[in-house]
Amino acid sequence: MFDIGFLELLIIGVVALLVLGPERLPKAARTVGLWIGKIKRTVSGMQRDISAQLEAEELRQKLDEQQKKLDASLHQVKQDVERYAEPDPVDTARTPPDTTATDKASPQPTDDRARLDAALAERRDEASGAPEAHREASAASDKDPSPR
Fold this sequence. Notes:
- By secondary structure, this protein is mainly alpha-helical.
- It contains five helices and no strands.
- It has helices at 6-85, 89-93, 99-105, 109-128, 132-142.
- The chain is rod-shaped, with a radius of gyration of 46 Å.
């Protein structure tokens, strides 16, 4: 703090003894010590406050940087999702197929749906432990009566 050596302290002590006298010197030294203690506590409190403010500012900057990174990655993910969600330009340029010709050639979707429903019902029955007769009855009713 101050660059005061032993010789300077000795000179200050002798002058204080001559000016104040031996009766008032201990009381004055105690008062000076209390003032110095108060000053040191005040200075250290200020230093703590300043360092706390600096740390808070650093944290704010780090949080801002992290927020920017998160926003950028969120924006990138959003763009990726939108890109995958958009239909391909090749698919939209195609003309829709003629539905009248394909309906006659392909099996009807209702037959596929009925088969799926029957398979799901059979699996549910197997999982629940339904009797064998019930399964056979449901399988017999699901068969197509027309020969193939």
